[in-house]
Amino acid sequence: MAQGADAMAGLYPISLNLRGRPCLVVGGGEIAERKVLSLLDCGAQVTVVSPRLTGGLQEIASNGGIAHINRSYLPGDIDGMAVVISATDDLKLNRLIAEECLARGVLINVVDNPSLCNFYVPAVVRRGDLTISISTNGKSPLLARRIREQLEREYGPEYADFLILLGDARQKIINKFPDPGDRRQAIARLVESDLLELIRRGEEERVKERIAECTSW
Questions:
Q1: Which position among 84, 174, 179, 209 has the lowest Cβ density within 10 Å, counted as fewest Cβ atoms?
Q2: Would you call 83 helix, strand, or coil by DSSP?
Q3: Residue 135 · residue 11 · CB < 8 Å
Q4: Is CATH 3.30.1960 the right assignment for the domain spanning 122-156?
Q5: Integer Cα distance of 204 and 158 in angstroms
């Protein structure tokens, strides 16, 4: 597997389904806590290996949200893991973990060390089922964060409700129109309408009316 930032130009973007999948985070500091929370948000089953944990991680572990192995990393801890994130300040240990993962084809991200990664974690904006990812191929996390902040202002919480309505309407359209062309036209009318603005203004009755208008023939 190719390693290093230069060898990873032209990365293939994917959305990885980690629901119910075992993931390992090595380290128990603040950065590790952020990584753990992001994995839990995706429904992953998270194990943390570290002799020390932040207060936040201790609370999550006490409540059964994560498994905690109270020691330093040992070879073999990656067994069965779908994803490994190394978030320690021990450069030698990070390299050891990365080499073990790369040799066995396990997805590995070493925080702040792109040369040891075979995937990068993008900056993400989430609005319900809408996920917008920003990646700089590990070259500038700061720029990715700034772009994320811009997108957070542009794409507000109304997009979560918008997608729920679109999903429900799409299924009704599929059931109503057997012709694929008619389906596309009905869905396009809905997406291109003022539905999003009506949701933003909280005009529930007009939202219902607009959906009915756009999905009728």
A1: 179
A2: strand
A3: yes
A4: no
A5: 12
Phi and psi (nearest 5°) for 107?
-65, 125
Q: Which residues of 174-209 are buried (b: 16+ CB within 10 A; e: fewer)?
A: eeebeeeeebeebbebbeeeebbebbeeeeeeebee
The rounded distance, in Å, linking the Cα atoms of 71 and 63 is 19
Q: What is the pLDDT of residues 145-180, one digit of tens each?
A: 999 999 999 999 999 999 999 999 888 898 888 899
Contact 10, 136 (CB under 8 A): no
DSSP 134: E
As a whole number of angstroms, the distance between CA 102 and CA 88 comes to 18
The domain spans of the chain are: 6-121, 122-156, 158-215
CATH number of the structural domain 6-121: 3.40.50.720
pLDDT at 5: 42
Q: Which two tokens stand for residue 3?
A: 């390693």
Residue 8 has pLDDT above 80, yes or no: no
Q: Which pTM value belongs to this model?
A: 0.79
In degrees and rounded to multiples of 5, residue 78 shows phi and psi of -80, -5
d(CA 52, CA 60): 14
Torsion from C-alpha of 116, 119, 121, 127, nearest 10 degrees: -170
| Arithmetic mean of pLDDT, 2-26 | 78
Mean pLDDT score of the chain: 92
